[in-house]
């Protein structure tokens, strides 16, 4: 007979207690949900909170769910996608001819949601033979069940409908369950009229209360569902619409922090919203025109589509065709349009609009000449030449920078420059897109990440006191000072000069990219080990401040000379860094982590995983032809399972092979990288060239 094992007993007991605890928690939540049926009581419990928010006079009271730059990128991706709403949204123009405007409104809303989810699915996820796994239905308030609007109208229940929803198809429950909800749309007649101008055109809190009520019911239903629902589904989008206008609301939060008091379910819910949820809402704007057609290309419909895109992604994972993939076609479409219109190279102000900055002798002089050395037009960024001097200012200073070298990362230009006050100190200088461009090219979005977004990230690093020689340093940031008078209007906007207000970022140190070293055959075993150490040191420092890189690739690592033989590596290109939960990393089929490709988010080991891919490819690993996210994920799974990456790095160094094994064990888990252990191990393998002594690698 097998002997009694206290350890085994304790493990089994703990597992049993955990199971009982989990089962009990689900039962409590199920009962909580059964009692949580009246939105008016919830709004009464939230009234003081709403009033307190209003009294604080914060503008805006809540964050917006999406950044404008992400919406612009999404807009470019949708250029080749057709959306067609066949059932028009009833409005005043139909009032005299329709006897059942409310019923028609739900029919139109369902058709709008159907064409949205169907077109997005086909463009981003599906193949021709793939059936869309979603359908659209509406919610009947009386029994909290779902009916398609057409059937509700036939049964005379249209007056009790309160919302529509995109649902996940469920063969066992064809009528739909609450945990099948992918996205909700709350239809109210007064979303636009109740929008408060003082509150940045956000919906009134009475409507928000209804949305919060429905959102919590969805989150609770998901948490107790027996279906195979991803654990990451802790957020839900709710669309707030009337017959003309709309807004997007997102609720996100950890339900484990919900205090389940079955005697006071509404007080518990209100406390959770106040203390443990994150709420973001977009301004109310027009979705449907007077004829009832959706303005698919306008900001309101675009935000709704973007919310639907993210809702689909929660269930279906990362799309086969990414936003970046589809948006990249914008430039070619733009060029095709220019050819159709028979446009040649155009300039904003003809020859008179061309400026050149020249540096003569020791003193900088800015002159205006009739040359084409610097091209400025509405579709291309500012181009500088060697010898130009750029005058940059912020709120308190002005400084001139002389262009010493023009570089290109394969997509956009940047420069090596030096301050006219300190010509011996080399600096990287980045010039952004002109802020007045209403329709920036895809290239200008990359410039926005390179300049404006990276400036923000480096400023946050400085504010948090990060000091590490393997991180770039923010030397200066400001805007170009153009020659001649600046006729800036009193509103604070830029004048009509094509350079006025163009942002500039200056960083240090300067070095060669790993991509250049690989092309020159100068990235060997010693370089790979040192590069791994230095990048991990940079990641360790940034992680201590809650910042992750999100875009590690050979173009974003530079090798810096320090003295005659001393070399070290600096991790640059922080424009896509993750500062908060809603930020999204850059997507690269070769270098992005598995988590980034699957979920559009980083796990704690994602940057380390990308670093391993960078070392693998830069050290001679086979570079596969990847044309889709699906193919990239398949390559990763095959390479890790067959240990191809570990074997290749093992040919270079045992410590790199061990590091790859370690990263493989962490991929997709919530466990952080133990940077200190690996920095110590790598440090033991770094030797000063020709001396055999260990190098001081302290940051």
From TrEMBL:
Matches recorded under Gene3D superfamilies: Transferase(Phosphotransferase) domain 1
**InterPro entries annotated for this entry?**
Kinase-like_dom_sf (IPR011009)
**Where is the region Disordered?**
1-26
- Say yes or no: keyword Kinase present: yes
Which protein, by its recorded name, is this?
Answer: Casein kinase (Serine/threonine/tyrosine protein kinase)
Q: Please state the Enzyme Commission number of this protein.
A: 2.7.11.17
What keywords are assigned to this protein? Kinase, Transferase
Gene Ontology MF, one: calcium/calmodulin-dependent protein kinase activity
